[in-house]
Every structure is written in C-alpha cells, then in structure tokens.
Amino acid sequence: MTAPATQPAEEVEAIRAVPVRHPGRTVAGVVLLLLIVWVAITVAGNEQFDFGAIPEYLFDPVVLSGVRLTIVLTVVSMVLGLVVGVIAAIGRLSENPVLRWVAGAYIWLFRGTPVLVQLVFWFNIGIVFPTVGISVPFTDISLVSVESNSVVTPVNAAILGLGLNSGAYIAEIVRGGITSVGRGQVEAAAALGLDPRRTMRRIVLPQAIPVAVPPLGNEFVSMLKYSALASVIAVQELLGSVETIYSVNLRTLELLVVASIWYLALTTLFSGLQSLLERRLSRGRTGIVTVRSSRFSLSRLWRWSA
Amino acid sequence: MSTPAVLARQVHKNFGPNHVLRGIDLEVAPGQVQVIVGPSGSGKSTFLRCINHLERIDAGRLYVDGELVGYREVHGKLHELRPQEVARQRVRTGMVFQHFNLFSHMTVTQNIIEAPRHVRGLSKSDAVTLAHDLLAQVGLADKADAYPAELSGGQQQRVAIARALAMEPKLMLFDEPTSALDPELVGDVLAVMRSLAEGGMTMVVVTHEMGFARDVGDALVVMADGRVVEQGPPREVLANPSTERAAKFLARVN
C-alpha cells in the first residue's frame, strides 16, 4: 500500500512564455542563404564552366588509374613511413647516444624541409649518383651496381620522398605513444622478472598503440593529400592524371573538381574507418570491453587496448 | 645461523647531487616481517627499490638470499649484470607498489599469469589454476575476468599482491601499499598482508600504518635523512624510542 500524498495532486499549468527574439540570427541566416543562392546561380549560369565534363570524366579510365596510383602511393609510402618511423622512435629512446643522435638528426632534417623539396631532390638524385648499388664501405669494390634512373623512377622517388618525410612525423607519434605508458608499468614488469624486450612487446607496445592510432590516422589522411605533390615529378597519380587531360582540352577547373571529388571521397572513407577504429580502441581503454572472445584474432586486436 | 634474506652493508645512493641513502646497514632474517617507517624523503622507498635493483646503489653491498644484487664480484671487482641476469634475480623477489601498477590492457587473470607463463614457463592451464587459487586467497575469486579499471583501489592492490605471489617469491617488498587507498579500503589489503605474514613469508614493508607495524612486524626500522636512526622490536621502539630523531617522528605519527 502506498502512503497517501500529503497534498492532493494538483494540475500545474505549463509555462507558455514568449521566447526571446533573435533578429540578428535571422538576418545573418537570410543574408548567408541569399549569398549561397547567388553564388550557385552565378556558377550555374556561367557558360564557360562545363558541368557536363564532371560526370564525363569522373570515371574516365585515365582518372581511375590516377585514383589507383594515389591509393598505392599513399599506402606504400605510409608503410615505409611506419617502418622508418618506428625505427627512428626506438632510436630516439635508445640508451646509445649515437643512435639517439642519428634518429634526432633524421627527424630534424626531414621535418624541417618542405616535402616538395624532398620529392624533387629524390627525383634528381641520379644527377649526382649515376649508379646505385652495394659496395664495400671505404673501398672501390662494388658488389651490385645499377643505373640510378632505372631504379629511381618517378613513382619510386615519390614513395621515397613521401615515406621518409612522413617517417619523421610518425617517429614522433610513436615516441609519444611509448612515453605515454607510465614508468610504473615498466617497473612492475621488471619486478616480475620480465626482461626489457618482452616488457616492450607485451606491456608497453600494446598500450602505446591505442594512443598512437588517432594521430597515425591523421597522418594517413594527410598523406593522401600530400601525394598530389608527386604530380610535380611526373607521377600520373590523381592530380597528374587530370592534368594530362586538361592540358589537352583546357577544362582545367572542371577536371580539378573531378580530382577534388575523388580526394574528398577517399579522405571521407579513411576518416570514417579511422573513427571506427578509434571508437573500438577507446571503448577498450575505459575498461568497458564488449568483445571478450579470444577465439577471433580481430577481437584479440581490440582487447589490446582494454 | 642461516643466510639472511636481505643483508645491506653501508648502502649509499645518490640522485645527482642528492645523497638519498647515507650508509644503510640492515638485516632481514628469513620469515621475518620488517617494517620501515620514516618521514617522507627519508629514503625508505628508495632503499626498498634498491633491494630488487630498480635503483642501482652507488656504494656498499646489498645481498638478497646471500647473492649480490645487480652485480657480480670477480677478484674484488664488481661487474654489472646483464638485463637478463637482473631479470632472473628479480624472480625470487615480489614487489607491490603504491600505485598498484597493474597492466591496464590485461584482465586480472592475464595480469597474474603473464610472468608465470613467460618467465617461470608454466603452461597456460597451470598458470590459470594458480591465478584462480591466488585470487581466492586475496578474496577476489569473482574478479578473474575484470579489467583493472573496473576495480576499486583496494581490489587492484590485492590483485597486485596475487600477481607478485604467482612468481612464488621468497621475499616480498611492499612500497607504501595502502597510501593511495581510500581509508575504508585499507583494511582489506592489510588483512591480506597479515595472512601472508602468518604464512611465514619474509616481508619488507614500507608503510605509514603504525598499527600494522606494531601487530604484524617482527622488527621496526625508523629511517630519517638517508640513515637508519633506530631499529628493534616494534612495541619497544614505539613505546621507548632511544634516539631523539626517532622519537620526534613517532610522536608526530602516533
């Protein structure tokens, strides 16, 4: 039995107040909308701009091969950057002063100079080093030697330039991830008798990776856009491919719109994948892990972060 | 007389210009519970960390179970041990930290079985059985699959004790194990430590819990300014400190 209310329930009248008016907001909104409509009409009414060219070239075989090359360039450069970056990060954290210094110098040099300069530099490396190969240091004995121009193709120069450049940034990201793992974790592992190598692999890295993933994702999206610079050294990636088309038909802006649509599609896709990954990782870190089955390798990956 | 579990002879430690330990002489007999107290900055935690070589000593000699810690002595000359050898030395010494330091990406069970599996070489099923036994011992049998973040501080510290015990150490070091806990959680952790002491474990405990020192400790050491200023049976030391420095400190905490 519920106790009777001390006071009978009373109908309370809901408040019907006159809301504060915001004339400024209304005016700004209307002005902005008018501006957008005006721009749209101007663009649409411009007979110099050929809208038909956009759908016409969006799936052009040349453009599609450019899209493919952009993806390949980004992924391969990113892999190179990750390998170099992880090595440089470990070098920076090494107790060996020479390693620390070399890694620091690499990061300083490649972060401190423009990517475009680096790309053109690698592209032209054949001028000063006509041959590349393997030889015994400090002697003239050459074991393998090939012509630079056959190895340093435009695509390889672009991968080298983009990869080494982003490696310098990735090194700092990875170093940040590793140093974010508290000293207490390493000490606890040491006190249990785990050796330094196992501690790094089992205790530090699994906790450093979730920290490093968001900035690494940003680095990937940046790489997608920076890969357009490779067009300067005659690589037929997305921008290069539309350039070859508009250099003939002179529909420059239309084709740049085509390229931009593809860049937007790719960055949107990868940003989506990135936030998906981050959500999974952050869910683990707060300890509320829903995927607990150890049967699947994917779920094991997520559990790293728990 | 049997080999002391811990033997310190004139141990010195510097952090840069800070002379943190200024000649510590100490002996812990097997099965003994030695409690170290002292004002903050007295060097008691640093000394504890030296015992399992988390800190390297700068002068003197420190032995655990008769073996020199962190060094090998050949013809009167000390050689640093390799990281793997240091790791092997640490196996027989368990350590519990003020801030628990559980591996946050692992469940309670994974925390406990990591070292037994990969250092002691136990099979996974043996290690898991051991982990569940130890969790029952510290009263957390139902938390085997929880992550550290899902546990209270007191529960985390009890898991940390179970994790250290899983290596079957001959000596347990406790570095202010209850200092980071809410007052109502301290009792559970102290109860686990007390039962460990009753089971005959050799323990060196740095703490501010004078009640624990009095009731469980076999010996009480008072440190101040990097030196041992007084040591003896806890009740005697607490009741009649013979040095002024110890008396001053004990008067403030009691």
UniProtKB/TrEMBL annotation, chain A:
A GO BP entry: amino acid transport
Domain of life assignment: Bacteria
Keywords, comma-separated and alphabetical: Amino-acid transport, Cell membrane, Membrane, Transmembrane, Transmembrane helix, Transport
Residues spanning the signal sequence: none
Localisation: Cell membrane
InterPro entries listed in its UniProt record: AA_ABC_transptr_permease_3TM, ArtM/GltK/GlnP/TcyL/YhdX-like, MetI-like, MetI-like_sf
Lineage: Bacteria, Bacillati, Actinomycetota, Actinomycetes, Propionibacteriales
Protein name: Polar amino acid transport system permease protein
All copies of domain ABC transmembrane type-1, residue ranges: 67-274
First-listed, main subcellular location of the protein, grouped into a coarse class: membrane
Topological relation to the membrane, as annotated: Multi-pass membrane protein
From TrEMBL, chain B:
Annotated organism of origin: Nocardioides soli
Keyword line: ATP-binding, Cell membrane, Membrane, Nucleotide-binding, Transport
Main subcellular location: membrane
Domain ABC transporter per the UniProt entry, residue ranges: 6-250
One GO MF term attached to the UniProt entry: ATP hydrolysis activity
Protein's membrane topology: Peripheral membrane protein
Pfam families found in the cross-reference section: ABC_tran (PF00005)
Tree of life domain: Bacteria
Catalytic activity: a polar amino acid(out) + ATP + H2O = a polar amino acid(in) + ADP + phosphate + H(+)
Subcellular location: Cell membrane
GO CC field: plasma membrane
Statement: the UniProt record of this protein carries the keyword Membrane: yes
Protein name (Swiss-Prot/TrEMBL): ABC-type polar-amino-acid transporter
UniProt entry tagged with the keyword Transport: yes
EC number assigned by the record: 7.4.2.1
Enzyme class, first EC level, given as a word: translocase
